[in-house]
Amino acid sequence: MLRTLTYPSAKCEAYLKALENRISAYPTKLERYLKEIAEDVKKKGDSALLEYTEKFDKVKLNANALRIKDEEIERAYREVSEELLSAIRLAIKQVRQFHEKNLPQSWIESFTKGIIVGQVVRPVYSCGLYIPGGKGGETPLISTVIMTAVPAKIAGVPRLIMVSPPRVDGSLHPALLVSAKEAGVDEVYRVGGPWSIFALAYGTETIPKVDLICGPGNIYVTLAKKLVAFQTGIDFLAGPSEVVVVADGSANPKFVVWDLLAQAEHDPESLSILITPSKKLAKAVKNLLPKEMSILPRKEIAEGALKKHGAIIVVSSLDEAMELVNRIAPEHLELAVENPEELLFEVKNAGAVFLGHYTPEAMGDYLAGPNHVLPTMGLARFASALSADKFLKKINFLKYTKLALFAQAKEVITLANAESLFAHAQAVKVRLEENP
Question: Does pLDDT of 436 surpass 90?
Answer without folding.
Answer: no
